[in-house]
Design a protein that fits this description.
heterodimer; A: 337 residues; mainly alpha; 61% helix; disordered N terminus; B: 96 residues; alpha+beta; Ubiquitin-like (UB roll); 2 helices; 3 strands; elongated
Protein backbone atom coordinates (compact mmCIF):
# COMPACT_ATOMS: atom_id res chain seq x y z
CA UNK A 1 0.00 0.00 0.00
CA UNK A 2 1.09 3.48 -0.78
CA UNK A 3 2.04 6.07 1.82
CA UNK A 4 0.13 9.24 2.50
CA UNK A 5 0.25 12.61 0.79
CA UNK A 6 -0.77 11.64 -2.70
CA UNK A 7 -3.58 12.90 -4.76
CA UNK A 8 -4.79 9.85 -6.62
CA UNK A 9 -2.80 6.93 -5.44
CA UNK A 10 -4.00 5.31 -2.27
CA UNK A 11 -4.90 7.94 0.29
CA UNK A 12 -3.51 11.09 1.80
CA UNK A 13 -3.30 10.73 5.54
CA UNK A 14 -6.07 8.16 5.74
CA UNK A 15 -5.88 4.41 5.38
CA UNK A 16 -6.33 3.46 1.74
CA UNK A 17 -10.08 3.30 1.40
CA UNK A 18 -11.65 0.10 2.46
CA UNK A 19 -8.27 -1.38 3.29
CA UNK A 20 -7.43 -2.62 6.74
CA UNK A 21 -10.40 -0.99 8.42
CA UNK A 22 -13.22 -2.39 6.36
CA UNK A 23 -12.00 -5.95 6.13
CA UNK A 24 -13.33 -6.74 9.61
CA UNK A 25 -16.91 -7.41 10.73
CA UNK A 26 -20.25 -7.15 8.95
CA UNK A 27 -21.44 -5.07 6.02
CA UNK A 28 -19.91 -1.62 6.04
CA UNK A 29 -22.48 1.19 6.14
CA UNK A 30 -20.40 2.98 3.51
CA UNK A 31 -21.21 0.16 1.11
CA UNK A 32 -24.74 1.48 0.53
CA UNK A 33 -23.37 4.91 -0.35
CA UNK A 34 -20.84 3.31 -2.68
CA UNK A 35 -23.50 1.24 -4.44
CA UNK A 36 -25.80 4.27 -4.67
CA UNK A 37 -23.08 6.18 -6.53
CA UNK A 38 -22.70 3.32 -8.98
CA UNK A 39 -26.45 2.93 -9.43
CA UNK A 40 -26.66 6.65 -10.19
CA UNK A 41 -24.05 6.02 -12.92
CA UNK A 42 -21.50 8.12 -11.05
CA UNK A 43 -17.82 7.22 -11.04
CA UNK A 44 -15.77 5.88 -8.16
CA UNK A 45 -12.44 7.65 -7.73
CA UNK A 46 -9.28 6.16 -6.19
CA UNK A 47 -9.54 7.73 -2.76
CA UNK A 48 -13.25 6.97 -2.29
CA UNK A 49 -14.19 4.19 0.06
CA UNK A 50 -14.76 0.96 -1.84
CA UNK A 51 -15.40 -2.66 -0.87
CA UNK A 52 -12.19 -4.65 -0.73
CA UNK A 53 -13.56 -7.14 -3.25
CA UNK A 54 -14.24 -4.30 -5.74
CA UNK A 55 -10.66 -3.12 -5.36
CA UNK A 56 -9.31 -6.66 -5.80
CA UNK A 57 -11.47 -7.36 -8.84
CA UNK A 58 -10.32 -4.16 -10.49
CA UNK A 59 -6.66 -4.76 -9.73
CA UNK A 60 -6.94 -8.25 -11.20
CA UNK A 61 -8.80 -7.07 -14.29
CA UNK A 62 -6.77 -3.93 -15.01
CA UNK A 63 -3.46 -5.74 -14.43
CA UNK A 64 -4.52 -8.57 -16.72
CA UNK A 65 -5.52 -6.00 -19.30
CA UNK A 66 -2.19 -4.16 -18.95
CA UNK A 67 -0.21 -7.39 -19.22
CA UNK A 68 -2.17 -8.26 -22.38
CA UNK A 69 -1.12 -5.00 -24.01
CA UNK A 70 2.52 -5.58 -23.13
CA UNK A 71 2.65 -9.28 -24.05
CA UNK A 72 0.64 -8.37 -27.16
CA UNK A 73 3.66 -6.49 -28.48
CA UNK A 74 5.46 -9.79 -29.05
CA UNK A 75 3.45 -11.52 -31.80
CA UNK A 76 3.41 -8.36 -33.92
CA UNK A 77 6.90 -7.19 -32.99
CA UNK A 78 7.97 -10.47 -34.57
CA UNK A 79 7.26 -8.96 -38.02
CA UNK A 80 8.71 -5.45 -37.71
CA UNK A 81 12.03 -6.36 -39.31
CA UNK A 82 10.29 -8.22 -42.12
CA UNK A 83 7.50 -5.78 -42.98
CA UNK A 84 7.20 -5.73 -46.79
CA UNK A 85 7.52 -1.94 -47.21
CA UNK A 86 8.70 1.09 -45.31
CA UNK A 87 5.08 2.25 -45.05
CA UNK A 88 4.00 -1.02 -43.44
CA UNK A 89 7.03 -1.02 -41.16
CA UNK A 90 6.33 2.52 -39.91
CA UNK A 91 2.67 1.60 -39.30
CA UNK A 92 3.58 -1.58 -37.43
CA UNK A 93 6.14 0.18 -35.26
CA UNK A 94 3.59 2.86 -34.37
CA UNK A 95 1.08 0.17 -33.51
CA UNK A 96 3.45 -1.82 -31.31
CA UNK A 97 4.49 1.43 -29.62
CA UNK A 98 0.81 2.15 -28.97
CA UNK A 99 0.44 -1.24 -27.29
CA UNK A 100 3.27 -0.28 -24.92
CA UNK A 101 1.49 3.00 -24.27
CA UNK A 102 -1.80 1.21 -23.58
CA UNK A 103 -0.04 -1.06 -21.11
CA UNK A 104 1.34 2.00 -19.33
CA UNK A 105 -2.03 3.81 -19.18
CA UNK A 106 -3.45 0.68 -17.60
CA UNK A 107 -0.64 0.06 -15.12
CA UNK A 108 -1.09 3.70 -14.11
CA UNK A 109 -4.83 3.10 -13.54
CA UNK A 110 -4.07 -0.04 -11.50
CA UNK A 111 -1.58 1.85 -9.37
CA UNK A 112 -4.28 4.28 -8.24
CA UNK A 113 -5.74 1.28 -6.37
CA UNK A 114 -2.66 1.03 -4.19
CA UNK A 115 -0.46 -1.53 -5.93
CA UNK A 116 2.92 -0.95 -7.54
CA UNK A 117 3.59 -1.69 -11.17
CA UNK A 118 6.72 -3.62 -10.13
CA UNK A 119 4.52 -5.86 -7.98
CA UNK A 120 2.17 -6.55 -10.90
CA UNK A 121 5.05 -7.37 -13.21
CA UNK A 122 6.40 -9.81 -10.64
CA UNK A 123 2.97 -11.47 -10.47
CA UNK A 124 2.99 -11.79 -14.26
CA UNK A 125 6.45 -13.35 -14.21
CA UNK A 126 5.37 -15.77 -11.50
CA UNK A 127 2.36 -16.75 -13.61
CA UNK A 128 -0.02 -15.57 -10.88
CA UNK A 129 -1.61 -12.97 -13.11
CA UNK A 130 -2.73 -13.73 -16.62
CA UNK A 131 -2.96 -11.97 -19.95
CA UNK A 132 -5.32 -12.50 -22.86
CA UNK A 133 -5.24 -16.04 -24.26
CA UNK A 134 -5.01 -14.68 -27.80
CA UNK A 135 -1.35 -13.68 -27.52
CA UNK A 136 -0.33 -17.28 -27.04
CA UNK A 137 -0.85 -17.98 -30.73
CA UNK A 138 2.08 -17.60 -33.12
CA UNK A 139 2.30 -15.12 -36.03
CA UNK A 140 3.37 -17.44 -38.83
CA UNK A 141 3.04 -15.14 -41.84
CA UNK A 142 2.86 -11.43 -42.62
CA UNK A 143 -0.90 -11.80 -43.13
CA UNK A 144 -1.19 -12.60 -39.42
CA UNK A 145 -0.38 -8.95 -38.71
CA UNK A 146 -3.46 -8.04 -40.72
CA UNK A 147 -5.62 -10.70 -39.09
CA UNK A 148 -4.57 -9.51 -35.63
CA UNK A 149 -5.46 -5.92 -36.47
CA UNK A 150 -8.79 -6.80 -38.00
CA UNK A 151 -9.97 -9.62 -35.72
CA UNK A 152 -8.03 -9.44 -32.46
CA UNK A 153 -8.16 -5.66 -32.21
CA UNK A 154 -11.75 -5.79 -33.42
CA UNK A 155 -12.65 -8.13 -30.56
CA UNK A 156 -10.64 -5.99 -28.16
CA UNK A 157 -12.51 -2.85 -29.24
CA UNK A 158 -15.85 -4.63 -28.80
CA UNK A 159 -14.81 -5.46 -25.26
CA UNK A 160 -13.23 -2.08 -24.52
CA UNK A 161 -15.83 0.41 -25.71
CA UNK A 162 -18.23 -0.41 -22.84
CA UNK A 163 -15.26 -0.23 -20.43
CA UNK A 164 -14.96 3.50 -21.20
CA UNK A 165 -18.03 3.82 -18.94
CA UNK A 166 -16.62 1.56 -16.23
CA UNK A 167 -17.58 2.70 -12.73
CA UNK A 168 -13.92 3.13 -11.74
CA UNK A 169 -12.82 6.54 -13.04
CA UNK A 170 -9.15 5.93 -13.85
CA UNK A 171 -9.92 2.69 -15.71
CA UNK A 172 -12.63 4.36 -17.79
CA UNK A 173 -10.36 7.30 -18.61
CA UNK A 174 -7.54 4.97 -19.66
CA UNK A 175 -9.96 3.08 -21.89
CA UNK A 176 -11.09 6.27 -23.61
CA UNK A 177 -7.51 6.90 -24.69
CA UNK A 178 -7.00 3.26 -25.65
CA UNK A 179 -10.16 3.11 -27.75
CA UNK A 180 -9.27 6.28 -29.64
CA UNK A 181 -5.94 4.79 -30.63
CA UNK A 182 -7.25 1.30 -31.22
CA UNK A 183 -9.41 2.26 -34.18
CA UNK A 184 -6.29 2.92 -36.26
CA UNK A 185 -5.10 -0.56 -35.29
CA UNK A 186 -8.17 -2.23 -36.65
CA UNK A 187 -8.22 -0.20 -39.84
CA UNK A 188 -4.58 -0.84 -40.67
CA UNK A 189 -5.20 -4.57 -40.21
CA UNK A 190 -8.24 -4.49 -42.46
CA UNK A 191 -6.37 -2.52 -45.10
CA UNK A 192 -3.43 -4.93 -44.98
CA UNK A 193 -5.67 -7.97 -45.37
CA UNK A 194 -7.65 -6.28 -48.13
CA UNK A 195 -4.45 -5.60 -50.08
CA UNK A 196 -3.34 -9.21 -49.71
CA UNK A 197 -6.75 -10.64 -50.48
CA UNK A 198 -6.93 -8.62 -53.71
CA UNK A 199 -3.30 -9.31 -54.63
CA UNK A 200 -1.80 -12.40 -56.23
CA UNK A 201 -3.42 -15.82 -55.66
CA UNK A 202 -0.59 -16.66 -53.25
CA UNK A 203 -1.21 -13.47 -51.26
CA UNK A 204 -4.92 -14.17 -51.18
CA UNK A 205 -4.25 -17.66 -49.91
CA UNK A 206 -1.96 -16.29 -47.22
CA UNK A 207 -4.68 -13.88 -46.06
CA UNK A 208 -7.27 -16.67 -46.02
CA UNK A 209 -4.95 -18.91 -44.03
CA UNK A 210 -4.41 -16.18 -41.44
CA UNK A 211 -8.16 -15.66 -41.07
CA UNK A 212 -8.63 -19.42 -40.74
CA UNK A 213 -6.23 -19.48 -37.80
CA UNK A 214 -7.26 -16.26 -36.04
CA UNK A 215 -11.04 -16.39 -36.44
CA UNK A 216 -11.92 -18.78 -33.62
CA UNK A 217 -9.32 -17.62 -31.10
CA UNK A 218 -10.67 -14.06 -31.60
CA UNK A 219 -14.21 -15.21 -30.91
CA UNK A 220 -13.06 -17.17 -27.86
CA UNK A 221 -11.09 -14.18 -26.66
CA UNK A 222 -14.34 -12.53 -25.51
CA UNK A 223 -14.37 -15.00 -22.65
CA UNK A 224 -16.19 -18.14 -21.54
CA UNK A 225 -19.94 -18.42 -22.24
CA UNK A 226 -22.28 -16.61 -19.83
CA UNK A 227 -23.27 -19.90 -18.24
CA UNK A 228 -19.69 -20.47 -17.08
CA UNK A 229 -18.41 -16.95 -16.56
CA UNK A 230 -17.27 -16.73 -12.97
CA UNK A 231 -16.96 -12.99 -12.43
CA UNK A 232 -19.79 -11.59 -14.51
CA UNK A 233 -22.76 -11.04 -12.18
CA UNK A 234 -20.87 -9.14 -9.50
CA UNK A 235 -18.92 -7.14 -12.09
CA UNK A 236 -22.22 -6.11 -13.66
CA UNK A 237 -23.65 -4.99 -10.32
CA UNK A 238 -20.50 -2.96 -9.74
CA UNK A 239 -20.68 -1.27 -13.14
CA UNK A 240 -17.33 -2.72 -14.18
CA UNK A 241 -18.86 -4.87 -16.87
CA UNK A 242 -21.81 -3.57 -18.90
CA UNK A 243 -22.55 -6.46 -21.26
CA UNK A 244 -22.16 -10.20 -20.91
CA UNK A 245 -19.49 -12.17 -22.79
CA UNK A 246 -22.08 -13.70 -25.10
CA UNK A 247 -23.63 -10.31 -25.89
CA UNK A 248 -20.20 -8.93 -26.77
CA UNK A 249 -19.42 -12.01 -28.83
CA UNK A 250 -22.61 -11.56 -30.85
CA UNK A 251 -21.81 -7.89 -31.35
CA UNK A 252 -18.32 -8.82 -32.59
CA UNK A 253 -19.57 -11.44 -35.04
CA UNK A 254 -22.22 -9.03 -36.33
CA UNK A 255 -19.47 -6.49 -36.96
CA UNK A 256 -16.89 -8.68 -38.69
CA UNK A 257 -19.10 -11.11 -40.67
CA UNK A 258 -20.11 -8.52 -43.31
CA UNK A 259 -16.56 -7.11 -43.33
CA UNK A 260 -15.27 -10.57 -44.29
CA UNK A 261 -17.42 -10.39 -47.43
CA UNK A 262 -15.81 -7.07 -48.41
CA UNK A 263 -12.39 -8.58 -47.76
CA UNK A 264 -13.25 -11.47 -50.02
CA UNK A 265 -12.25 -13.93 -47.31
CA UNK A 266 -14.29 -16.78 -45.85
CA UNK A 267 -14.53 -17.21 -42.08
CA UNK A 268 -13.90 -20.85 -41.13
CA UNK A 269 -17.41 -21.32 -39.74
CA UNK A 270 -19.92 -23.20 -41.91
CA UNK A 271 -22.73 -22.19 -39.55
CA UNK A 272 -22.13 -18.46 -39.97
CA UNK A 273 -25.21 -16.92 -41.60
CA UNK A 274 -27.53 -13.97 -41.21
CA UNK A 275 -30.64 -14.74 -39.18
CA UNK A 276 -33.42 -12.49 -40.39
CA UNK A 277 -35.62 -13.27 -37.40
CA UNK A 278 -33.06 -12.50 -34.74
CA UNK A 279 -31.54 -9.62 -36.66
CA UNK A 280 -28.13 -11.12 -35.89
CA UNK A 281 -25.67 -13.54 -37.40
CA UNK A 282 -25.86 -17.14 -36.26
CA UNK A 283 -22.51 -18.76 -35.71
CA UNK A 284 -21.01 -22.05 -34.61
CA UNK A 285 -20.02 -23.06 -31.13
CA UNK A 286 -16.52 -21.84 -30.21
CA UNK A 287 -14.15 -24.41 -28.72
CA UNK A 288 -14.18 -23.21 -25.12
CA UNK A 289 -12.18 -26.23 -24.10
CA UNK A 290 -9.33 -24.83 -26.18
CA UNK A 291 -9.78 -21.43 -24.51
CA UNK A 292 -9.50 -23.07 -21.10
CA UNK A 293 -6.39 -24.94 -22.18
CA UNK A 294 -4.67 -21.81 -23.53
CA UNK A 295 -5.65 -19.68 -20.52
CA UNK A 296 -4.41 -22.49 -18.29
CA UNK A 297 -0.93 -22.21 -19.82
CA UNK A 298 -1.02 -24.80 -22.57
CA UNK A 299 -1.28 -22.69 -25.71
CA UNK A 300 1.24 -22.82 -28.53
CA UNK A 301 3.40 -19.94 -27.22
CA UNK A 302 2.66 -19.46 -23.49
CA UNK A 303 6.13 -20.40 -22.28
CA UNK A 304 7.87 -18.45 -25.03
CA UNK A 305 5.88 -15.26 -24.29
CA UNK A 306 6.52 -15.39 -20.55
CA UNK A 307 10.22 -16.20 -20.99
CA UNK A 308 10.67 -13.37 -23.49
CA UNK A 309 9.05 -10.83 -21.19
CA UNK A 310 11.15 -11.92 -18.26
CA UNK A 311 14.33 -11.75 -20.34
CA UNK A 312 13.49 -8.27 -21.67
CA UNK A 313 12.80 -7.13 -18.11
CA UNK A 314 16.07 -8.54 -16.81
CA UNK A 315 18.08 -7.33 -19.79
CA UNK A 316 16.76 -3.83 -19.11
CA UNK A 317 17.76 -3.85 -15.45
CA UNK A 318 21.11 -2.12 -16.07
CA UNK A 319 19.33 0.74 -17.84
CA UNK A 320 17.03 1.28 -14.89
CA UNK A 321 19.95 1.05 -12.48
CA UNK A 322 22.02 3.52 -14.50
CA UNK A 323 19.11 5.98 -14.67
CA UNK A 324 18.55 5.67 -10.92
CA UNK A 325 22.27 6.18 -10.21
CA UNK A 326 22.36 9.23 -12.48
CA UNK A 327 19.27 10.67 -10.77
CA UNK A 328 20.77 10.08 -7.31
CA UNK A 329 24.08 11.70 -8.28
CA UNK A 330 22.33 14.64 -9.88
CA UNK A 331 20.04 15.11 -6.86
CA UNK A 332 23.10 15.16 -4.58
CA UNK A 333 24.80 17.80 -6.76
CA UNK A 334 21.67 19.95 -6.80
CA UNK A 335 21.29 19.67 -3.04
CA UNK A 336 24.94 20.67 -2.49
CA UNK A 337 24.70 23.69 -4.80
CA UNK B 1 12.18 -10.91 -8.03
CA UNK B 2 12.49 -7.15 -8.43
CA UNK B 3 14.98 -6.08 -5.84
CA UNK B 4 15.42 -2.72 -7.50
CA UNK B 5 13.57 0.17 -5.87
CA UNK B 6 10.87 1.26 -8.30
CA UNK B 7 11.49 4.70 -9.80
CA UNK B 8 9.32 7.38 -8.20
CA UNK B 9 5.84 8.15 -9.49
CA UNK B 10 5.06 11.41 -11.32
CA UNK B 11 1.71 12.95 -12.16
CA UNK B 12 1.52 14.24 -15.72
CA UNK B 13 -0.33 17.40 -16.78
CA UNK B 14 -0.69 18.41 -20.41
CA UNK B 15 -1.69 21.65 -22.10
CA UNK B 16 -3.41 20.41 -25.23
CA UNK B 17 -3.19 23.75 -27.02
CA UNK B 18 -2.37 27.35 -26.36
CA UNK B 19 -5.10 29.11 -24.43
CA UNK B 20 -6.05 26.05 -22.38
CA UNK B 21 -4.79 25.09 -18.96
CA UNK B 22 -2.78 21.99 -18.18
CA UNK B 23 -4.95 18.97 -17.42
CA UNK B 24 -4.09 15.86 -15.47
CA UNK B 25 -3.74 12.90 -17.85
CA UNK B 26 -2.20 10.17 -15.73
CA UNK B 27 1.02 9.14 -14.09
CA UNK B 28 4.27 7.34 -14.81
CA UNK B 29 7.48 6.15 -13.19
CA UNK B 30 10.80 7.86 -13.86
CA UNK B 31 14.04 8.24 -11.92
CA UNK B 32 14.17 12.02 -12.30
CA UNK B 33 12.24 15.00 -13.64
CA UNK B 34 13.98 15.08 -16.99
CA UNK B 35 13.25 11.42 -17.69
CA UNK B 36 9.70 11.91 -16.45
CA UNK B 37 9.20 14.64 -19.06
CA UNK B 38 10.62 12.49 -21.84
CA UNK B 39 8.57 9.49 -20.80
CA UNK B 40 5.46 11.66 -20.56
CA UNK B 41 6.07 12.86 -24.11
CA UNK B 42 6.32 9.26 -25.35
CA UNK B 43 3.40 7.92 -23.35
CA UNK B 44 0.90 10.77 -23.52
CA UNK B 45 1.64 12.83 -26.67
CA UNK B 46 2.22 10.32 -29.48
CA UNK B 47 -0.44 12.08 -31.54
CA UNK B 48 0.38 15.71 -30.79
CA UNK B 49 -1.98 15.83 -27.82
CA UNK B 50 0.06 18.54 -26.17
CA UNK B 51 2.13 21.69 -26.55
CA UNK B 52 3.40 21.72 -22.97
CA UNK B 53 3.90 19.13 -20.23
CA UNK B 54 4.20 19.42 -16.46
CA UNK B 55 5.42 16.55 -14.33
CA UNK B 56 4.98 16.66 -10.56
CA UNK B 57 6.21 14.08 -8.05
CA UNK B 58 3.03 12.34 -6.86
CA UNK B 59 4.40 12.37 -3.33
CA UNK B 60 4.30 16.17 -3.03
CA UNK B 61 0.62 16.55 -3.87
CA UNK B 62 -1.72 17.13 -0.94
CA UNK B 63 -5.31 16.17 -1.57
CA UNK B 64 -8.58 16.85 0.20
CA UNK B 65 -10.05 13.78 1.79
CA UNK B 66 -13.14 12.23 0.20
CA UNK B 67 -14.31 11.20 3.69
CA UNK B 68 -14.89 14.78 4.73
CA UNK B 69 -16.13 16.04 1.40
CA UNK B 70 -19.51 17.02 2.81
CA UNK B 71 -18.20 19.19 5.60
CA UNK B 72 -15.26 20.43 3.55
CA UNK B 73 -17.44 21.76 0.74
CA UNK B 74 -20.32 22.67 3.04
CA UNK B 75 -19.72 26.43 3.13
CA UNK B 76 -20.74 26.74 -0.53
CA UNK B 77 -23.85 24.60 -0.27
CA UNK B 78 -26.25 27.13 1.26
CA UNK B 79 -25.34 30.21 -0.76
CA UNK B 80 -27.51 30.13 -3.86
CA UNK B 81 -27.30 33.94 -3.97
CA UNK B 82 -23.84 33.49 -5.46
CA UNK B 83 -25.50 32.41 -8.69
CA UNK B 84 -27.15 34.84 -11.14
CA UNK B 85 -30.22 32.62 -11.38
CA UNK B 86 -31.04 33.44 -7.73
CA UNK B 87 -32.31 36.89 -8.75
CA UNK B 88 -35.63 37.60 -10.40
CA UNK B 89 -35.54 40.39 -12.90
CA UNK B 90 -38.60 42.11 -14.46
CA UNK B 91 -39.48 40.77 -17.92
CA UNK B 92 -39.03 44.17 -19.53
CA UNK B 93 -35.32 43.92 -18.95
CA UNK B 94 -34.18 41.83 -21.84
CA UNK B 95 -30.56 41.49 -21.06
CA UNK B 96 -28.84 41.75 -17.71
Amino acid sequence: MRSSGQIEHGAAGVAPSGGETAASAGPDPREAEFQALIDADQRIEPRDWMPEAYRKTLIRQIAQHAHSEIIGMQPEGNWITRAPSLRRKAILMAKVQDEAGHGLYLYCAAETLGVDRAELIDLLHEGRQKYSSIFNYPTLTWADVGAIGWLVDGAAITNQIPLCRCSFGPYGRAMVRVCKEESFHQRQGFELLYALSHGTPAQHEMAQDAVNRWWWPSIEMLGPPDTESTHSAQSMAWGIKRFSNDELRQRFVDMVAPQAVVLGLTPPDPELRWNEQRGHYDFGQPDFEELRRVVGGDGPCNRQRAAHHLKAHEDGAWVREAAAAYAAKHAATTAAA
Amino acid sequence: MSEETPAPLWEVFIRSKRGLSHNHVGSLHAPDAEMALRNARDVYTRRMEGVSIWVVPSAVITASSPDEKDSFFDPAADKPYRHPTFYSIPKEVQQL
